[in-house]
Specification:
Layout (H helix, E strand, L loop, with lengths): L8 E6 L3 H13 L3 E7 L2 H8 L9 E4 L9 H10 L6 E6 L5 H6 L4 E4 L4 H14 L12 E6 L2 E6 L5 E5 L2 E6 L2 E5 L3 H8 L4 E4 L2 E3 L4 E7 L2 E7 L6 E6 L1 H13 L8
Parallel strand pairs: 1-2, 1-3, 3-4, 4-5
Antiparallel strand pairs: 6-7, 8-9, 8-12, 9-10, 11-12, 13-14, 14-15
């Protein structure tokens, strides 16, 4: 089976600088060769992700060497993975060549230097695809979402999410339990959950099952997404070019309105 015929590489990104983390996620997703299933900013969060049962579905970790926990925190994670059978492949993504030799001795497969480029990331992914063990089928979509509330991690069921929002270079998830921060971009979320979500605006993904109102005012359209009509929810703008398609989608499995 060729690399192009295989399922996309499932990747975890570990980078403590938000702009670099988001840019790398965008390059990985934009290549069409990788699916980012997690993006975290600390060594502790990386260790937690790598110790979860979902790690069995992880193909590669893109890891910065110099994390906030210490100059060599990234290499310590690499060293621990090198001792574990079945561990994901590792790529160092960092600003310095200083640790290259030690990294390759530990089994790191590639070394991406900042600033990252589209061509370099794609060539890295093609090399990784050749080294990855073959899988018969792509892994199932994640059933839980890990978000943040201050210093706490919040675990959410995918089926209870109302909407995802990108705002001021951050990503938020809206739920009946409140609004929380996420480390993933909207494109990464959309790739992970597929048809469960609908893109209604460049900054919004919604779960159609929680759409309670479709509001029109002149040429503007917006949704009320939440738990019940008339109750507090989230008001979501709809892009003009998506309004008719969205209306058709919402009416497709509904009755009670005369069409025409």
């Amino acid at each position: 089976m060729s690399a192009s015929a295989q399922p996309r590489l499932r990747a975890l990104v570990v980078e403590d600088e938000w702009p670099a983390r988001n840019f790398l996620v965008e390059l990985l997703e934009g290549s069409g060769l990788a699916e980012v299933v997690g993006a975290v900013g600390s060594a502790d969060d990386a260790r937690q992700a790598l110790s979860s049962p979902d790690r069995v579905h992880l193909d590669v970790v893109f890891l910065d060497v110099q994390l906030a926990a210490g100059e060599r925190a990234g290499l310590e994670i690499v060293r621990s993975l090198a001792k574990e059978p079945g561990a994901p492949l590792v790529v160092l993504a960092t600003a310095s060549r200083e640790h290259a030799l030690e990294a390759f001795e530990l089994g790191v497969l590639d070394y991406l230097l900042k600033p990252f480029s589209e061509d370099r990331v794609e060539s890295c992914l093609r090399r990784l695809a050749e080294r990855r063990p073959r899988r018969e089928a792509s892994a199932a979509a994640p059933q839980r979402i890990v978000a943040r509330r201050k210093k706490s991690l919040v675990f959410l069921d995918a089926d209870e999410v109302w909407a995802f929002e990108a705002s001021h270079r951050l990503t938020f998830v809206h739920t009946p339990h409140g609004t929380f921060d996420l480390d993933l971009s909207l494109s990464a979320i959309e790739a992970s959950f597929g048809r469960k979500l609908t893109r209604v605006h460049r900054s919004w993904l919604v779960n159609p099952m929680f759409v309670k109102e479709l509001e029109r005012e002149g040429s503007d359209t917006r949704l009320l997404v939440g738990a019940a009509v008339g109750q507090p929810g989230v008001h979501v703008p709809v892009a003009r070019e998506r309004a008719q398609e969205l209306k058709d989608l919402l009416l497709a499995n509904a009755t009670g309105l005369r069409r025409g």
